[in-house]
Amino acid sequence: MHPAVSVIFFTVTSGAGLGMIFLLGLGFPVDASGPWVFFVGLVGGGLAVAGLLASTFHLGHPERAWRALSQWRSSWLSREGIAAIVTLVVFGIYVLIWLATGSRHQLLGLIAALGAALTVFTTSMIYAQLKTVPQWNSRLTPLVYGGFALGSGWLLASALGTHEAPELWGVLLIALAWGAKWFWWVRAGRSRLGDAGSSPETATGLGFIGKVRLLERPHTGENYLTREMVHRIGRKHAHRLRMLALLLGGVVPIVVLAIVGLSGAPGVFNLIAAVSMLAGLLAERWLFFAEAEHAVSLYYGHR
Predict the structure, then answer these.
(1) pTM (two decimals)
(2) Contact 280, 248 (CB under 8 A)
(3) Buried b (16+ CB within 10 A) or exposed e, 174-188
(4) Contact (Cβ atoms closer than 8 angstroms) between residue 277 and residue 249
(5) Cα–Cα distance between 116 and 20 in angstroms, integer?
(6) Higher pLDDT, 298 or 277
(7) Domains in the chain, start-ordered, CATH in brackets?
(8) How buried is residue 216: exposed, middle or buried, by Cβ count under 10 Å (0-12/13-18/19+)?
């Protein structure tokens, strides 16, 4: 699959923002002063909004994005949009009450947290439910999306919070998220289109004749399908990017958290870990799309 920059940015930044909203809704410790509460809420909500806005640039007609909300009965994309809007509205009210009264409304916080978790889940299901992409079609996909959202959100929240949450929690969340991703990579490496019953014979409907091979491409030039659904990356480059993603997204944040926890340094240093993890997740998410094989590629000679 073609790795679109807008979708990569959307899934990483909105995941971090929603992870932060989830933790704030559950009562993650933050300085109660008005300006700081506003700033922390702005970071969490802003990241989520920025990611959602970026996703519209991948649409042919971004101005029609609102129409996707009407298909909630059958579309995970529509459910994602509705869940995101409801979550952001509830979180906005939650922060306003927090600013006005100096205390948190527990019920609104819980609803915002559940909404954030549901939004991340619906985002992951857009990909996990696609049987035409065997690498994505796994229960591990929602687990990976949720784990990374929670890990990156914790790093941001701890960097901007009161530093009452021990760094060990962050280490465990990041380690578990990358552990799930490692299992996802192992499974994806073994997943092939043939395992889902797809082949050039099924793609063309000519299997009753015998084995099918491509004699000539159906188009003289590139089209939407070849640009978006057919993408190949060398195994060497994929391996290097995986190591880069693991280093920036997992190793560096854990080392920073360990140093902060053992030395008693201010929690703001966790911001270094957060930036590093987000950079690693950009590489991880690029690979998520670049290594995926769509069944439509079989029609263009890929076997």
Answers:
(1) 0.86
(2) yes
(3) beebbebbeebbeeb
(4) yes
(5) 9
(6) 277
(7) 5-300 (1.20.1630.10)
(8) exposed
